[in-house]
């Protein structure tokens, strides 16, 4: 698996996702982005803020395979917003309440056991077989998930096993035979308001100084 050791997520990666979502609704075209079109695995996450100040997930889809960044960000910005089967497609009326996060993944390495990783630093990919069903199970959590949820390492692993679709008993023996790859990421996020301010600053630099001072 290819890795990107030095690539860092920026707000321009996130703004490009908003560009593509708005273009989807308006039918407009989007100018090619200025950031490097390198190979990278990535995820795009959309959250929606409520009037009570809480947020809820509206879509999160990505790829663990390194792909050309320009096309992959476009594809997964729209797929995560409109094609995550766990949620109805995001509607245009929801856009002002959205927050977008881009995670660029890097530093993939095989863990020696199911405890060989650090909460808040590593994402996980698990893979295991079920001899009784003669099938393979796999799933991933991004590095921020366990820390956000307040999970221990064991609870994270058990939730990841369940996420894979496996419905059997989760035993110490099952944990011990997991194949685990750990990885890191850099992330950047923008709310829609921050995105509007960013795009306005391109037209009016003086406004940018006032906004971000």
UniProtKB/TrEMBL annotation:
Residues 2-199 form the AMMECR1 domain. Gene3D superfamilies: Hypothetical protein ph0010, domain 1. InterPro entries: AMMECR1, AMMECR1_dom_sf, AMMECR1_domain, AMMECR1_N. PROSITE patterns: AMMECR1 (PS51112). This is AMMECR1 domain-containing protein.
């Amino acid at each position: 698996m290819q890795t990107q050791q030095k690539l860092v997520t920026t707000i321009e990666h996130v703004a490009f996702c908003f560009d593509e979502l708005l273009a989807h609704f308006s039918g407009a075209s989007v100018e090619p982005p200025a950031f490097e079109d390198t190979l990278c695995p990535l995820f795009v996450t959309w959250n929606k803020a409520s009037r009570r100040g809480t947020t809820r997930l509206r879509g999160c889809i990505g790829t663990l395979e390194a792909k050309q960044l320009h096309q992959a960000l476009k594809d997964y910005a729209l797929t995560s917003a409109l094609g995550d089967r766990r949620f109805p497609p995001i509607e245009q009326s929801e856009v002002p309440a959205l927050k977008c996060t881009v995670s660029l993944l890097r530093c993939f390495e095989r863990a020696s056991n199911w405890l060989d990783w650090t909460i808040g630093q590593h994402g996980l990919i698990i893979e295991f077989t079920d001899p009784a069903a003669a099938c393979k199970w796999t799933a991933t959590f991004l590095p921020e998930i366990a820390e956000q949820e307040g999970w221990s390492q064991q609870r994270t692993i058990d939730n990841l096993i369940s996420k894979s679709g496996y419905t059997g008993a989760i035993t110490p023996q099952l944990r011990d035979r997991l194949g685990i790859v750990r990885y890191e990421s850099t992330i950047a996020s923008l709310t829609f308001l921050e995105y509007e301010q960013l795009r306005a600053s391109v037209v009016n630099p003086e406004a940018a100084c006032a906004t971000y001072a």
